[in-house]
């Protein structure tokens, strides 16, 4: 963005508002870094999960078809074995005796009435015996399809047909050995029972399970349109091993050929039902993707705004710091002038002190000559006291900046603290601050860098003076320890919030306007280099207490 300045100025370009270009770049970069991996990983996981679910669904359907095939084969096998057992143990003559065949039918129907009737038929297709609800004794099956087929094999299971009774039914025929006359034991299966068995075996809830013959004719009733002995629409099915899967018109068709009869077990199901889990997963993925995209977009915006806000805050602090550094540069430049001025003032004060002393001596020698001599003497004494006090302040100021380079020397803590209090005497008296001094004994000396220690203590005292209100209280409490000295600088100011007690030692962090936020950071850095530590304990509303620990000797002092 640009903004036109005063007349004759060129438009200002670049990041305006500040960091606008950086904001745009950061947002685009973070969005790309978040969305590209997210989209790629999501696509891979979705594809893998979809393929896995599809395979599991198809495997479940294959299992259902295989179970239906196995169960129906077992049903027919059980019926065939029952008829073979009867024909193998009883002769045609025995079965043709009154009530014998009826008893056999009742025995077979004990568990379920699968067989409607039983017949004994000779090799000419004539009934030797019959038991059942129909009048079929006079019927001859020599020209029937099932009869011609059983004559070439030992066992035959027919498709559904109407026959003489004009009711859909299937027959299971078992032929005896040639040496026994080659007679046939035939059992008739009711289509309704076969349909019920196939429906009970099928486990596909939303799909359709049914049986067809090799010509595609329904052998059981489907759920869709159509009925028994009608065309299923599956023309000329190809024989295959196992379960075959076809996809057609939005539906899945799975089929398996039976072993006992030329029938096919078929399961059909809509894809939307078969793959319902995949469709639900797709909806869930879309929902998660949209929600995640919104959350990532908001997170990127909030993060970028936060970072740019911090950068803008740092920029303003740096700008303020630049102003402070410029001011410090000017002060440093003028320091030489101040030292010369202090020296001349000190010389002038010495001259005033000497002159006042001479005047005082003259008054003492001739007090009777001068009217009001006692009052003059008091004034001379005050002049001397003030000049001496001013000279001490100047000496303290000059000692404060006495060491331009780091040196190691003995430091008397009591003298150092007195100098600092005297140096800040005007501000202390101006704010009417009560300074409580608990000075150590005169012989307490540590070896360290005097300029550095003086700088740290001046920073702590100045910080306390700025924190307290008028008529506040500051406490200076040194405590001698075995390996060093601990100095507490406490004030009765507003205190420091717990969250800020460590941050106040960070560079550029400040809780007061008009400050660069470097004083305490520099002070802690100096203390750490001296082998000590600087901590703070402050509770809001109860003031703050800074604790300065300095060792007796510097770690690198070999003297």
CATH third-level topology of the domain at 58-274: Beta-Lactamase
Poorly predicted sequence stretches spanning 5 or more consecutive residues: 1-16
CATH architectural arrangement of the domain at 58-274: 2-Layer Sandwich
Sheet with the most strands: spatial strand order: 2-1-5-4-3
CATH homologous superfamily title of the domain at 58-274: PAS domain
Relative helix content: 40-55%
Which structural class should the secondary elements be placed in?
alpha+beta
Run of helices and strands = HHHEEHEEEHEEEEHHHEHHEEHEEHEE
β content, as a range?
15-25%
Task: List the SSEs and their pairings.
Elements: H1 20-89, H2 92-96, H3 100-108, E1 115-121, E2 127-131, H4 145-150, E3 155-157, E4 169-175, E5 184-190, H5 191-201, E6 208-213, E7 244-248, E8 251-257, E9 263-270, H6 271-274, H7 276-365, H8 373-400, E10 409-412, H9 413-423, H10 425-430, E11 434-437, E12 445-448, H11 450-467, E13 473-481, E14 484-491, H12 519-529, E15 533-538, E16 544-551
Parallel strand pairs: 11-13
Antiparallel strand pairs: 1-2, 1-5, 3-4, 4-5, 6-9, 7-8, 8-9, 10-12, 13-14, 14-16, 15-16
Helix pairs in contact: 1-7, 7-8, 8-9, 11-12
């Amino acid at each position: 963005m640009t903004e036109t300045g005063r007349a004759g100025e060129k438009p200002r370009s670049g990041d305006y508002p500040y960091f606008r270009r950086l904001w745009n770049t950061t947002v685009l970069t973070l969005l790309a870094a978040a969305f590209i991996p997210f989209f790629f990983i999501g696509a891979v996981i979705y594809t893998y999960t979809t393929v896995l679910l599809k395979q599991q669904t198809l495997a479940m359907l294959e299992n259902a078809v295989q179970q239906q095939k196995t169960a129906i084969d077992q049903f027919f096998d059980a019926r065939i074995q029952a008829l073979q057992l009867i024909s193998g143990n009883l002769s045609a003559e025995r079965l043709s005796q009154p009530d014998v065949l009826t008893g056999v039918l009742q025995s077979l129907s004990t568990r379920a009435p699968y067989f409607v009737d039983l017949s004994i038929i000779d090799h000419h297709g004539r009934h030797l015996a019959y038991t059942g609800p129909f009048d079929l004794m006079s019927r001859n099956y020599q020209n029937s399809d099932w009869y011609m087929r059983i004559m070439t094999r030992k066992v035959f299971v027919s498709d559904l047909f109407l026959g003489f009774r004009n009711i859909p039914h299937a027959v299971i025929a078992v032929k005896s050995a040639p040496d026994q006359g080659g007679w046939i034991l035939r059992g008739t299966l009711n289509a309704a029972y076969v349909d019920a068995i196939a429906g009970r075996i099928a486990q596909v809830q939303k799909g359709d399970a049914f049986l067809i013959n090799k010509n595609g004719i329904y052998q059981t009733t489907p759920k869709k349109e159509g009925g028994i002995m009608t065309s299923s629409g599956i023309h000329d099915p190809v024989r295959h091993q196992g379960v075959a899967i076809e996809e057609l018109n939005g539906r899945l068709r799975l089929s398996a050929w039976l072993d006992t009869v030329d029938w096919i077990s078929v399961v059909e199901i809509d894809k939307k039902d078969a793959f319902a889990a995949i469709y639900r997963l797709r909806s869930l993925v879309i929902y998660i993707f949209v929600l995640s995209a919104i959350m990532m977009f908001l997170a990127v915006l909030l993060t970028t705004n936060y970072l740019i806000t911090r950068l803008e805050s740092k920029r303003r602090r740096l700008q303020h710091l630049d102003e402070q550094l410029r001011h410090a540069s000017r002060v440093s430049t003028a320091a030489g002038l101040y030292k010369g001025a202090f020296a001349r003032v000190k010389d002038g004060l010495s001259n005033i002190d000497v002159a006042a002393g001479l005047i005082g001596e003259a008054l003492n020698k001739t007090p009777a000559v001068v009217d009001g001599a006692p009052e003059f003497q008091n004034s001379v004494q005050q002049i001397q006291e003030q000049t001496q006090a001013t000279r001490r302040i100047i000496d303290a100021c000059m000692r404060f900046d006495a060491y331009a380079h780091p040196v190691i020397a003995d430091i008397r803590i009591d003298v150092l603290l007195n100098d600092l209090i005297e140096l800040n005497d005007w501000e202390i008296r101006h704010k009417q601050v009560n300074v409580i001094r608990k000075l150590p004994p005169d012989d307490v000396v540590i070896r360290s860098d005097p300029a550095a220690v003086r700088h740290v203590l001046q920073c702590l005292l100045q910080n306390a003076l700025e924190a307290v209100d008028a008529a506040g209280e500051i406490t200076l409490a040194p405590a001698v320890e075995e390996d060093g000295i601990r100095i507490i600088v406490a004030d009765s100011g507003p205190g420091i919030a717990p969250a800020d007690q460590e941050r106040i030692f960070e560079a550029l962090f400040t809780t007061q306007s008009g400050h660069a936020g470097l004083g305490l950071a520099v002070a802690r850095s100096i203390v750490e280099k001296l082998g000590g530590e600087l901590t703070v304990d402050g509770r809001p509303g109860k003031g703050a207490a800074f604790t300065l620990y300095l060792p007796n000797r510097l770690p690198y002092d070999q003297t």
